[in-house]
Write a structure and sequence with these properties.
Helix content is 39%, strand content 18%. With 380 residues, it is α/β, with parallel strands linked by helices. The protein folds into two domains: 203 residues, 3-Layer(aba) Sandwich (Rossmann fold), CATH 3.40.50.2000; 165 residues, 3-Layer(aba) Sandwich (Rossmann fold), CATH 3.40.50.2000. The chain starts with a strand and ends with a strand.
Length: 380
């Protein structure tokens, strides 16, 4: 009999954890489930506080402990053992994130079960600290082996694809499927009426490479009517809050922590300008989302941001060098804020979430031909 496609997504973290990869996974899993795909998301839970089994957005979630609660590299022998024992129950194994050994475990399990492997590495080419960058060197042979086990390696931008090919060879079976934006949900969101005015929004996972400190310092160079909202959390938050106090910014700079997707869309709708000065990104999803919401956008001129900037109306986006001084950033921000307000969010349509899901599903089906579109196998 013909049964629905069964896909196993494997990643370091998943819902309700927040972050770029976590958002990508949730959107992909929910989109596949809407298309009658049976999706299981296997992730780690370093906290040990979340349910072992869960269901969200139409897909199943399995969570496994990490070794000694590790939340840096998410080493999880329990997840590795489960993958080896259960991979043969799925039609496609899709691993995410080059930068932890979780995708390596997925590759081993797929090879043993003789199941096709897809990898979305979210590859930055280096670590975000000196120690992690050093660890990339001994890890690269293993990471390269993992990538070469994949039938397809999905890059989320052409910049990431070029970096993967430069580091692992032109024969790597790459394809580009950019992450999409839920335009309807963004444009349906209400702004925060009490926050109207000159407002900058920045944030995400607060780590040093995101350079939120540079955004905070830029606020000093702007007229006092300008305010900054920092969303998200992370190891740099304490230092960032201390910097804001040292600069005497008071309530001009607010840290709101992790917020729901619905509230994040509201912040994007409220923002005059969205800023990301990150030094490393595989893609620029938050830039696309904020631009779709109607904000002007200031981005660091890293390759991934330059690629995203080309898809945003020119009058709505500006790039600055990652090492730019706060005064230069403030000057560019003021110029783009004056230009961007005249162009509404509905005047431009960014890449859609639906396209991302459809392209990924089509990739699965092509890998499984001639069994696609349904999967002919015995019912359990």
């Amino acid at each position: 009999m013909t049964l629905p496609l069964r896909v196993l997504l494997v990643a370091p973290r998943g819902w309700p954890a927040t972050g770029g990869i976590e958002r990508h996974l949730e959107d992909l899993a929910a989109g596949l489930a809407e298309r009658s795909v049976e999706v299981t998301l296997a992730v780690t839970d370093p906290t040990g506080r979340l349910p072992r089994r869960d269901r969200h957005g139409g897909f199943d979630i399995l969570r496994f402990p990490t070794l000694r609660g590790n939340a840096t590299f998410y080493v999880s022998p329990a997840l590795g053992r489960w993958l080896i024992g259960h991979a043969d129950g799925y039609d496609v194994i899709h691993g995410h994130s080059y930068h932890t050994p979780i995708a390596v475990s997925a590759a081993i399990a797929a090879r043993l079960a003789r199941r096709p492997l897809v990898i979305t590495p979210h590859y930055h080419g280096t670590g975000h600290t000196r120690g992690r960058a050093w660890l990339h060197r001994p890890y690269r042979p293993l990471g390269g082996w993992m990538l070469r086990q994949a039938r397809k390696v999905i890059a989320v931008s052409s910049v990431e694809e070029a970096l993967l090919r430069a580091d692992f060879g032109a024969s790597l079976p790459t394809t580009v499927i950019p992450h999409g934006v839920d335009v309807a949900a963004i444009q349906a969101a209400d702004s925060f009426a009490e926050e109207q005015g000159d407002l900058i929004v920045t944030g995400g996972r607060l780590e040093p490479y995101k350079q939120v400190d540079r955004v905070i310092a830029t606020l000093v160079e702007l007229p006092t009517t300008w305010r900054l909202v920092v969303t998200g959390d992370g190891p740099a938050r304490t230092d960032l809050e201390a910097l804001s106090r040292r600069l005497g910014l008071g309530d001009r700079c607010r840290f709101v922590g992790w917020v729901s997707d619905a509230d994040l869309r509201r912040w994007y709708r409220t923002a005059s300008v969205f800023v990301s000065l990150s030094r490393h990104e595989a893609f620029g999803l938050t830039a696309l989302e904020s631009a779709a919401a109607g904000a002007s956008v200031v981005l660091s001129a890293i390759p991934a941001h330059r690629e995203v900037a080309r898809s945003i109306p020119a009058e709505r986006v500006v790039t600055v060098e990652p090492d730019s001084t706060p005064s230069i950033i403030a000057e560019r921000l003021m110029a783009i804020s004056r230009a961007g307000g005249s162009v509404g969010g509905a005047a431009w349509t960014p890449p859609s979430l639906e396209t991302m899901v459809e392209k990924t599903l089509d990739l699965y089906r092509k890998i499984l031909e001639p069994r696609a579109p349904g999967i002919s196998r015995s019912a359990p």
